[in-house]
Structure formats: structure tokens, C-alpha cells
Amino acid sequence: MTEAFDNLFSIKGKVALVTGGSRGIGEMIAAGFLAQGAKVYISSRKADACEATAKRLVAAYGGQCMALPADLSKIEGIAQLVKAIGAHEQKLDILINNAGAAWGAPFDEFPEVGWDKVMDTNVKGVFFLTQKLMPLLRKAGAGPSPARVVNIGSIDGIKSASMDSWSYGASKAAVHHLTRFMAARLTKERVLVNAIAPGPFPTWMLSTGVGFGGQTEGVDWDKIGQRNPSGRVGSPQDIAGLATFLCSRAGEYVIGQTIACDGGIVAAS
């Protein structure tokens, strides 16, 4: 018997939702999916930014990318997003849980609001959005290919960070363990769950943490990359490539894993 290996990494024709998709890692994944022929919905809290990114991505890569803004730190915002995508689609092949928040402050001064905001967005939002989207994910999983959920964690959930981001690291460790819990329960329903733990990428969030003031263009990312065993920060191809693998036939036997996409930082720590 000759095995077929055609379209092993293809996600063409799949329907994907990328939360936190208006910038940063979410935008990178959305761009990669769109370029490979997926139909992409992006969500973020700010409607104007979400719409602008969707238009920019379509102009760059063609295809269909639509904005569905929502605040996923709140149950009401999750319900709003689930209703909106349900009005457009009968099934959902791919859910990328990327929406996230961070907060930095010294240990003795870290505020409750910084704890709650991060945990509500990064952990509570991931759980309840996936829960509420299960009817659409189950319908996709009933087809020839299982549905996929990819939770975006962080290497800060694997190792201690140098910054005072107490709730962020704890939230990402929770996301990694939640991924294993979800995978153990949902695989039998043909909904496959994995996590990606990114290292340094040229994003607004990292820019604020390293003193670039949120700027991602015209700043010295090479300086940040020099601290990395690979000698650089991540690129859109790096993160979109791993996400594509997990959501394609090639990644169908990878379940419940947290994969670092960090240029070697965890391995060297």
C-alpha cells in the first residue's frame, strides 16, 4: 500500500477564529492562515483596530478575513462573539485562543486589578470561549478532519521571567495545564487541543516590557534577539508555521502538548 502525503500541511478551506487577532502574534497567525487559503475571523477588544487589521490582511493576502470585536475578559463579551460567529458559520474548524493581557508591578505593589484582569482574559476567557464554541467545533470535528483548538501560552509559564509580571506567568502556566485537561476530555469528540508557548516576538506587549513604549517598527529588536540562543526574535513565519502544523493533517496525532516557539530559550534555561 502506498501512503498519500499530498496536502499534508494544508489548511485551505478551513474556517478559523483568531482571538487577539488585531496585532502581535494573533495578527501573525491570522496572516499566515489567510495566505494559505483559510477563511479567517479575527477578534479583539477595540473594534476600530480589529476592522483595520482585517482590511489590511485582505489587501495583503486576499481571501476572506472578517472582524468580530469583543471583550473576552467578560462572559458577556464571549457570548457576543459566539453569537456573531454563529450568525456566519455552521461549523468552526480552528480556534486560536490568543487574546491576552499582561500587567507589571513589583511584588509588594502588585494590585488586585492587575491580577484579576490578566486571569480573566488569559485563563477564564480561554475556558469559556472554548466551552461556548463547542457546538461549532463538534460540527467541524464530525467531518473528515478533527477540529483544532490552539491555546497561546508563553515561555513565562514554563520558566521564571525577568520582569515583574506575576499574574501573567501564573496565567500562562494555567493555560498550559488547562490545555492538557481540555485535550484529555475533548479528543474523543474529535476536538484536538494543544498550546504554543511563544518566546520573544516583535509585538506591542513585549515592546512595552522591554522599554520600547509599545513601538514595533523602527526599534532595535536585534538587541533583544542577542539574548536568545538563536540570535534573533521570532518572525511571523515561525509562529504561523507552528500553528499551521498543529491545525493540519501533519499535526493530527499531536494532542495535549505545549510546544515552545522561542528560539531555544527554554532549552538553555
Helix-strand layout with pairing:
Elements lengths: L14 E5 L4 H12 L3 E5 L3 H15 L3 E3 L7 H14 L5 E4 L14 H30 L5 E6 L13 H21 L4 E8 L5 H6 L11 H5 L10 H12 L10 E4 L3 H4 L1
Parallel strand pairs: 1-2, 1-4, 2-3, 4-5, 5-6, 6-7
Helix pairs in contact: 1-2, 1-8, 3-4, 4-5
Question: What does the largest sheet look like?
Answer: 7 strands, parallel
- State the strand order across the main sheet: 3-2-1-4-5-6-7
Question: Please, how many helices?
Answer: 9
Rounded to an integer in angstroms, the radius of gyration calculated over CA atoms is 18 Å
Q: What is the number of independent domains?
A: 1
CATH superfamily: NAD(P)-binding Rossmann-like Domain
Order of helices and strands: EHEHEHEHEHEHHHEH
* Mean pLDDT, all residues: 95
Give the assembly state of these chains. single chain
> Proportion of β residues?
5-15%
Q: What is the class in the CATH system?
A: Alpha Beta
- The SS-based structural class is alpha/beta
Helix content: 40-55%
Shape category: globular
Q: How far do the termini sit from each other?
A: 45 Å
What CATH architecture do you see? 3-Layer(aba) Sandwich
The number of E-state strands comes to 7
* Contiguous runs where pLDDT drops below 50 for at least 5 residues: none
